[in-house]
Amino acid sequence: MKIAVEGCAHGELEKIYECIQTIQERENIKLDLLICCGDFQSVRNHEDLRAMAVPEKYQRMCSFYKYYSGELRAPILTIFIGGNHEASNYLQELPYGGWVAPNIYYLGRAGVVKFGNLRIGGMSGIFKAHDYRQGLWEIVPYTQNSLRSVYHVRSLDVFRLSQLKTKVHVMLSHDWPRGITEYGDKHALLKRKPFFREDIESNQLGSAPAETLLHAMKPDYWFAAHLHCQFAALVTHNETNTETKFLALDKCLPKRRHLQVLDLPSEYDGDKCLKYDVEWLAILKNTNHLLNVKNITCHMPGPGGNERYDFTPTEEEKDNVIASLDSLHIKEEYFVKTAPVFNKNAPKSFPRQPIRNPQTVVLCEKLGIDDPVQVVMARMGNNMKMPYVEPEPSNEEEPVEQEVVESTPIKTQLTKLSLPAPVTPSENDSEVSPSRLISPETDTTTISDSTNNASECITPMSAGPKKTFKRRNISIYNTPDADFSCSTDASSVLDSDSPHSNKVVCRENL
Fold it and tell me: Which CATH number fits domain 2-507: 3.30.70.260, 3.40.47.10, 3.40.50.360, 3.60.21.10?
């Protein structure tokens, strides 16, 4: 099985797929899967753009809408988690995962799926301590506060992942696990990113919950992004004599190391179909009563109390999940357009009302679990909007949307591989072949590197003067996106002639 891993996609799907196509043609191989580690930016229209926490000058449609509308089709199965620059209104429709476009699958707030025999887990968003123990209270229309808190990791998602006992081969997070720099070449990292020093020395760089999960789950691989630089580490778990190979990747820009290709043993091939993970679905069902949608501090159960705190499913509980589903295969035909596609002449308005996604409705009904947004709306006495209805081809009038759902159900209370290690290319090795594969005989291959700086502010949600919020190490969060393309010229390299060039060319052997 051959898979590609992308760092921060930032909506540049066409460019990522072009690079993958170039690699496949040069190496005469076929990649089976693309994994993206957040900031995917599944923006369908102007409303989605306004629901994304980026400065207004960086609000660009990019190319996802073409795959959503059907103008283009993803040439490879793509699985992604959310980051901190997402169309949060769209991702909130799919808290437990689902198709955002044909052949493009979102893992959900937290999730586990199987691709063939490869088990892939992921955790969306970034960690902020002040929101970690809150309920899932955010809904559109977002305030300036909820526009950001909506993508902050919550304790419920981490608690659910901690219940997994069966081996997860690949784990994804957007931000790095805290303390991961102690397992790699920290000095080389600080040489490239000296402004990381304060956070590293105070043990504030990265996510504390991700650190806990790393040592609890012990996956073979852990991939991340967010900090816009490439970094490899090897974590040894002495109690089990196993290792986790960690690799963080950059954003999709010229001279950035943002794409990694892996060659995995054939034992992971299986049927190479995307399937639900039974253990994970059983955990969702077992922990449904822990869902809280209030803007208050809530705590997960633990030992010493008088309630169940171990929700690792029994074989009987897993059998019940299988019996409740028609099939474990996650079929692409489940995808439904729930909002209008991009129209450049449409007004640039903010999303006004949550939309019910049929994928979430069906999964919740079959498992007997709750959609967090639907519970919030029910508590407020409001209804969710029905999905967008696409007009007939012969209809020349503007698209018409149905108004609301007639009724909203109230919250249901339920009873209670040894893989090869990534090797960071030498700092002095500026010329790297983008198409080499990781295998026991070959080294890590990544795609080029450079650094740009820009500040980040919050997008105003109402009229009035803009407020700018500075963030520590702001240079790692925003870099103006540049247009570039992948050339198939065999005599060129995935690089640019200068740091200011806006064209990427793919070069073969160096």
Answer: 3.60.21.10
